[in-house]
Amino acid sequence: MKALVLSGVKEIARRANVSIATVDRVLHNRSGVALKTKELIEAIIKDMDYKPNILAKRLASKRVHRFAVLIPQENAETDYWRALLNGIQSALNELGDFGVEISYYLFNQRDRTHFKELADHVLGRNLDAVIVAPVFVKETKDFVFQCEGKKIRYIFLQNDLPLASPLSYIGPDAFQFGRLAANMCKYLVEPHEPILVLSLRPELEADNLLAEKMKGFEDFLGEQGAAWNIMNLKIDTDMYEVFEAALAQYLENNKTNLIYVLNSQVFWVARFFSEHQIQDIKLIGYDYSSNNIKYLEKGYIDFLICQQPLKLGYRALATLFEHFIAKKGVSRTQYMPIDIVTKENFKLYKH
Question: Using one digit for the tens of pLDDT, what is the confidence trace for 264-315?
Fold first, then answer.
């Protein structure tokens, strides 16, 4: 007589000498299983390389998970958010069969009222979760507080707010962003040579994110055992002509060997260099956008510190899939890799 070969949950239960219900509780991360039993079952699952048939379960249950995306809209100056949306769409193309529906709410990055209006729309929907970029910190805190009251889970992108309880934060480690920029400065200028840290149009990025970058920047230079010559300048305008006059006045009265721009608007400084034929000041900034790349290719930007928004968007939806459909645990914090893009390698960089 041939031996009966069992597979799947039944075989796991047989090997562990437990009931199928106990195996099911471990697979779905439910309580009620002794720690030693849970560890035994998990070891058997790993040994068997068992993977539940998630699609079959979804088809049987006919459950549809509804998610929303609340992030800035693409604008004429940056296509970063379009790349992130493409990443979400790429994940959706793979996961659509599992009963996932997404609604998109794209707000004006300079308009708090528009964010609040769209946030109210999201709160009026019957949703399981929302992916949100906390550009407006106070308004986002109010929004996620209401999400918690409605039992809507949420994922933060780009900016992790203290005292909030997201399912996960996915994005950069802003402190390490700043440290990396300072490390590059160490190789580009001597400690006595002036460095200008420029906060350009700070309303486009959350205050706490800029502060963390600056903290990391100062932390690294403070470890180098030298008195670095750091100057700070904030230019808060959405008009290039006003910015141009402010930077021209500063450079007329202050020697500068390197400019470090705290956000993605570095191409404004590069444009200024191009128009004023400045070639002796090093320039570092953030993000792989078409405007930044144009001046990187021409040599006016020396380094761009980047992450891959396509992967970030994909990771966000994949995290919701893992939590809601695969019933797996997800990490509270998922830092994205930090990349350095130059004139020599930007064509090879897939963002």
Answer: 889 999 999 999 999 999 999 998 888 999 999 999 999 999 988 899 999 9
The reported pLDDT for the residue numbered 334 is: 96
Torsion angle of C-alpha atoms 17, 22, 27, 31, degrees rounded to 10: -130
- Looking at the DSSP bridge assignments, the partners of residue 156 are 132, 169
How many other C-beta atoms can be found within 10 angstroms of the C-beta atom of residue 147?
23
Structure tokens at 309: 């928004």
Residue type, 184: M
Asked if residues 206 and 159 have their Cβ atoms less than 8 Å apart, the reply is: yes
- The pTM for the full model equals 0.78
As a whole number of angstroms, the distance between CA 139 and CA 122 comes to 14
Using only C-alpha atoms, what is the Rg of the chain? 25
Domains and CATH numbers, the chain: 8-52 (1.10.260.40), 60-171+309-337 (3.40.50.2300), 174-306 (3.40.50.2300)
102 contacts 71 by C-beta, under 8 angstroms: no
Query: Max alpha carbon distance in the chain (Å)?
Result: 94
Q: 143 near 123, Cβ under 8 Å?
A: yes
